[in-house]
């Protein structure tokens, strides 16, 4: 769907921000770009919708070089969400959401309908919020509007640059959950930038870990956790002994509810075993003292692992 072929970006001052990048984002995939500040994530993202021109190589979307698309058509077909979204302060929420569909000439009643549908999708009641101005919303709600605005014209591609990093932890978690749901129902091809490994593990189909404009490792969350390529990856994820056991009980997705699953794990499970099972199954049952206590799924397990690795990293400092 999106293909980077030997992409290099050299800024006029000589900084090589992206260095011969080879990367393919699959159709419908949720790819997370992660890495330390300055490693080239934003530059990589902005070259996709031509906010930044590349120096050499080629980026293809749907098999065609991006610079062969008319610019407005390209931008309309790519939703873009920033860390601090800028809603138009004098426009209502409904008007803000439907900026792009309006430019595309959608009829008025369809704009209204679309805004209501999108507000409902992220749990905001249209009768309460559609007519409000941005200042009458909390930071978290405004950021939600930023996300649905990017989806308004039903683009094929969604680019998100640290969209939740300015939010408090609770709002952040809520928006991540929203996005997980949207991801399942809409299946947009998404490139999501973050510097937060916990967020990456929770959301990604694949994670692309970058350093100094290059890819260090590209793989599924379980591959990065299970088979980190080198010490850089390991340190980014947090050290973790795979034979170490963790307690699944606090992380159960469904407490006490029996999932129709042939697979059952002990609640005190070696990390390696947990990853092996979740690499192949979306969820598994959990047993404690021979009694079924609930179900663990991939998202909740990764959240638990990320929390633990975060704690360990913190203790080392
Ligand atoms: P990230 O988003 O991963 O933090 P960026 O893509 O913003 O990284 O930046 C990558 C590198 O390019 C950094 O070294 C940054 O200082 C440099 N850079 C970014 N924008 C410019 C610019 N307009 N001119 C010169 N250097 C830049
Ligand atoms: Mg950036």
Automatic annotation (TrEMBL):
InterPro entries in the record: AAA+_ATPase, ABC_transporter-like_ATP-bd, ABC_transporter-like_CS, P-loop_NTPase
Keyword ATP-binding: yes
Keyword Oxidoreductase among UniProt keywords: no
Pfam families, per database record: ABC_tran
Record key words, sorted: ATP-binding, Nucleotide-binding, Transport
One function term, GO molecular function aspect: ATP binding
The name this protein goes by in its record: Osmoprotectant transport system ATP-binding protein
PANTHER family the record matches: OSMOPROTECTANT IMPORT ATP-BINDING PROTEIN OSMV
Organism expressing this protein natively: Bhargavaea ullalensis
Family, as annotated: Belongs to the ABC transporter superfamily.
Domain (ABC transporter): residue spans on this chain: 2-237
């Amino acid at each position: 769907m999106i293909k980077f072929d030997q992409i290099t970006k050299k800024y006029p001052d000589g900084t090589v921000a992206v260095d011969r990048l080879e990367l393919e984002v699959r159709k419908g995939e949720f790819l997370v770009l992660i890495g330390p500040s300055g490693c080239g994530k934003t530059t990589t993202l902005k070259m996709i919708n031509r906010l930044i021109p590349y120096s050499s190589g080629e980026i293809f979307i749907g098999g065609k070089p991006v610079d062969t698309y008319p610019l407005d058509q390209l931008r309309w077909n790519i939703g873009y969400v920033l860390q601090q979204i800028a809603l138009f302060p004098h426009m209502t929420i409904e008007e803000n959401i439907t900026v792009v569909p309006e430019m595309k000439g959608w009829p008025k009643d369809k704009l209204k309908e679309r805004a209501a549908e999108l507000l409902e999708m992220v749990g905001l009641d249209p009768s309460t919020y559609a007519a409000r101005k941005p200042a009458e919303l909390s930071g978290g709600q405004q950021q939600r509007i930023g996300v649905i605005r990017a989806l308004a014209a039903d683009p094929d591609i969604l680019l998100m640059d640290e969209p939740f990093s300015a939010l408090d932890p609770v709002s952040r978690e809520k928006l991540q959950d929203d996005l997980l749901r949207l991801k399942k129902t809409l299946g947009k091809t998404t490139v999501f930038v973050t510097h937060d490994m916990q967020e990456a593990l929770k959301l990604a189909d694949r994670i692309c870990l970058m350093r100094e404009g290059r890819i260090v490792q590209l793989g599924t969350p379980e591959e990065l956790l299970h088979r980190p390529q080198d010490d850089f990856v390991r340190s980014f994820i947090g050290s973790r002994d795979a034979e170490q056991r963790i307690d699944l009980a606090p992380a159960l997705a469904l407490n006490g509810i029996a999932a129709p699953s042939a697979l059952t794990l002990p609640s005190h499970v070696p990390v390696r075993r947990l990853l092996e099972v979740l690499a192949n199954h979306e969820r598994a049952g959990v047993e404690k003292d021979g009694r079924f206590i609930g179900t663990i799924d991939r998202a909740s397990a990764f959240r638990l692992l990320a929390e633990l690795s975060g704690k360990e990293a913190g203790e080392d400092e």
